[in-house]
């Protein structure tokens, strides 16, 4: 901050007027014509401004010295009361710290000698700064080890979005949906974007998903329409069978089939090579199951009476699906069951098994082909683990109080564990064999974890989780430890989302989806309101 000569003259002129020294004020006015600036400065300069600024300057100088003396940012009230706060003390300290000789006008010879002295001082100061920077870096590393949480900034922003997806084999390629009937494929390498425009009838795009090989992209619209795009942004085909918003899209491991589920519990399996439907499962399909399953449907229908308006009530049984292999898949069924289905040549007898046990809507389903175990979670926070051909739960994990938002099978030192997050604001690592929680952490103030994404990494030091909570905060976590006894989840980063406007503050919006790049160097976070962000991961 600097003060101009005119501003100093105006403050002195005002002080002389306020003190009744009219002749002195007139003399200054005659010499500097400072009165011409009265209309500019007068509305902003209060009475006694000069004295007030001098007093504050002296107080600031004393407080700075006090902080340096006690080597802490905490100042006690008694310290302030005991300050020797007067004008002459301040002048004495100025003369002590900066003698008059240092402020006088120097001759040319003295100036050259002073310049050399300043250059030496500058070099010494630069060396000192480098040493301090090295110490700060060491302290930062020590702080990270001791639980330091780094506030991270975004690499780039994109418009508000419901869905985002990094290419599975190209960390520099990303796709996201927008709130204007468009989706975007963006390349970090060329800093270019390709827009995928949809008709207005499609409404908003809810999901974008890359194929397993990253050669094509599928978009799901609010009206139930699916569109398949090439990596260059060319429309390859339109898949129209759903009439309601899509809640889940899952590719088969080979990428040949696509499984879609809408909010009315209708599941469709598409053959991407031919754009044909190879499986269609709805209430009519369920009725062709065996007698025991048919009874289950009848009981559920009896509890699902029509409303007073005469229109039927539709109960959503779940929002997630998964593939067991390239031909078998799992979808939510009536009475919150899990239906094990298969792709058949004639679309008959698609349901081959029913898993019962959940008492509320299915929110997460995850299968691991190495373990050959299936885990599922419902909105009451209960997690069930299933194995092989058994229709009974192998294990039931209870601990979350609200709906589970993420389930992941993870390995630590070649041992398997289960990772879960939930709307109760907690994240847990489970020893699912012993049915116990290994570690439990919660986000700040217990905010609901709306979505999360896990990056396995190539070794145990690269396992990280990113969570998005109901306050709009994005937390970065790492998993530490190499054995069951010392496994810990630790927060290492925080990104705080907010929308800057010139108007009144607006809601920050909720985190709608999180996606990792294939190399773990970046993570994209979509927000329903305000700017979405891509964050660099150290």
From TrEMBL:
Residues 116-133 have a biased composition (Basic and acidic residues). Keywords: Nucleus, Repeat, WD repeat. Residues 110-144 are annotated as: Disordered. InterPro entries: Ebi-like, LisH, WD40/YVTN_repeat-like_dom_sf, WD40_repeat_dom_sf, WD40_rpt. WD repeats lie at residues 208-232, 239-280, 355-396, 397-440. Gene3D superfamilies: 1.20.960.30, YVTN repeat-like/Quinoprotein amine dehydrogenase (2.130.10.10). GO terms for molecular function: transcription corepressor activity. One of its GO terms (biological process) is regulation of transcription by RNA polymerase II. This is LisH domain-containing protein. It is found in: Nucleus. GO terms for cellular component: Set3 complex. PROSITE patterns: LISH, WD_REPEATS_2, WD_REPEATS_REGION. It comes from Pichia membranifaciens NRRL Y-2026.
């Amino acid at each position: 901050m600097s003060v101009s000569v005119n501003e100093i003259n105006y403050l002195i002129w005002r002080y002389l007027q306020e003190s009744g020294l009219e002749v002195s004020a007139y003399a200054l006015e005659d010499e500097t014509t400072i009165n011409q600036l009265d209309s500019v400065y007068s509305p902003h300069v209060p009475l006694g401004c000069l004295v007030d600024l001098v007093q504050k300057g002296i107080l600031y100088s004393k407080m700075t010295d006090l902080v340096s003396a006690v080597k802490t940012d905490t100042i006690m009230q008694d310290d302030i009361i005991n300050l020797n706060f007067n004008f002459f003390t301040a002048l004495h300290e100025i003369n002590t710290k900066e003698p008059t000789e240092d402020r006088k006008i120097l001759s040319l010879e003295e100036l050259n000698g002073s310049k050399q002295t300043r250059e030496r001082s500058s070099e010494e100061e630069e060396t000192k700064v480098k040493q301090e920077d090295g110490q700060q870096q060491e302290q930062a590393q020590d702080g990270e080890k001791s639980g330091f949480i780094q506030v991270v900034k975004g690499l780039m922003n994109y418009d508000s979005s419901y869905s985002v997806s990094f290419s599975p084999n190209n960390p520099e390629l990303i796709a996201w949906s927008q709130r204007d009937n468009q989706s975007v494929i963006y390349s970090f390498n060329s800093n270019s974007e390709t827009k995928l425009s949809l008709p207005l009838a499609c409404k908003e795009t809810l999901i974008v998903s890359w194929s397993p090989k990253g050669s094509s992209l599928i978009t799901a619209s609010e009206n139930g329409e699916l569109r398949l795009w090439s990596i260059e942004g060319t429309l390859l085909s339109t898949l129209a069978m759903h009439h309601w918003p899509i809640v889940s899209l899952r590719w088969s491991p080979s990428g040949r089939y696509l499984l879609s589920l809408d909010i009315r519990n209708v599941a469709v399996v598409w053959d991407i090579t031919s754009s044909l439907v190879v499986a269609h499962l709805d209430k009519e399909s369920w009725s062709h199951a065996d007698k025991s399953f048919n009874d289950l449907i009848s009981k559920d229908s009896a509890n699902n009476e029509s409303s007073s308006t005469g229109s039927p009530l539709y109960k959503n049984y779940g929002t997630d699906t998964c593939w067991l292999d390239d031909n078998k898949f799992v979808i939510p069924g009536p009475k919150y069951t899990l239906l094990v289905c298969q792709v058949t040549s004639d679309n008959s007898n698609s349901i081959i098994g029913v898993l019962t046990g959940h008492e509320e809507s299915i929110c997460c389903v995850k299968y691991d082909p190495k373990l050959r175990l299936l885990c599922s979670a419902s909105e009451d926070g209960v997690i069930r683990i299933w194995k092989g051909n058994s229709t009974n739960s192998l294990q039931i994990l209870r601990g979350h109080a609200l709906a589970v938002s993420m389930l992941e099978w993870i390995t630590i030192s070649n041992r398997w564990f289960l990772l879960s997050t939930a709307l109760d604001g907690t994240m847990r690592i489970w020893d699912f064999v012993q049915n116990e929680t290994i570690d439990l952490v919660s986000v700040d103030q217990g905010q609901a974890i709306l979505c999360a994404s896990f990056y396995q990494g190539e070794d145990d030091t690269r396992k990280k989780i990113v969570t998005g909570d109901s306050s709009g905060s994005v937390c970065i976590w790492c998993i530490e430890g190499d054995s069951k006894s010392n496994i810990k989840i630790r927060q290492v980063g925080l990104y705080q989302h907010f929308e800057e406007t010139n108007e009144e503050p607006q809601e920050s919006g909720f985190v709608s989806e999180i996606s990792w790049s294939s190399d773990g160097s970046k993570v994209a976070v979509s927000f329903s309101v305000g700017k979405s962000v891509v964050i660099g991961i150290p």
